[in-house]
Design brief:
The protein has one domain (3-127). It starts with a helix and ends with a helix. Helix 2 (15-36) crosses helix 4 (60-74) and helix 3 crosses helix 6 (109-127). The protein is globular. It contains six helices and no strands. It has helices spanning 3-9, 15-36, 43-54, 60-74, 90-103, 109-127. It is mainly α.
Length: 128
């Protein structure tokens, strides 16, 4: 996946586009994370980015970038469909890492704490 395509995916979008993306992300994030858990080595940063994207105090442009990358992550059909075993989440990981790298300074200690707690709960529910 080249930088031009990643750049196109990470366009912050309009307020309406971001609202639609947020709805998709909220509805599908945890289900997709469950499927991708073994393929994404930076789950803690991904979940912190999720909380950052949903935080109304996060700057609009940052929220837009994160919502675009998270929407790409939760949608099953993209450049490499997620159901392709072993590599399906590779393009998603590239997009997510680009987004997280671009906005890393906006992920707060509160977002990281919420991510740790959510991942503890998530891991606990996986064992049950």
């Amino acid at each position: 996946m080249d930088d031009v395509k990643i750049g196109e995916i990470l366009e912050p979008g309009t307020e309406r586009e971001n609202a639609a993306r947020e709805e998709k992300v909220r509805a599908r994030f945890w289900r997709t994370l469950r499927k991708a858990a073994g393929h994404v080595p930076f789950l803690d940063e991904l979940v912190a980015a999720y909380f950052c994207a949903l935080d109304p105090a996060t700057p609009t442009r940052v929220r837009g970038i994160l919502l675009a990358s998270l929407a790409y992550f939760v949608l099953p059909l993209d450049f490499i469909p997620d159901f392709v075993l072993g590599i399906g989440f590779g393009d998603d990981a590239a997009v997510l890492m680009a987004a997280i790298s671009a906005i890393r300074t906006n992920i707060t200690p509160a977002h990281r704490a919420a991510a740790r707690k959510a991942l503890e709960d998530f891991s606990g529910s996986e064992k049950a």
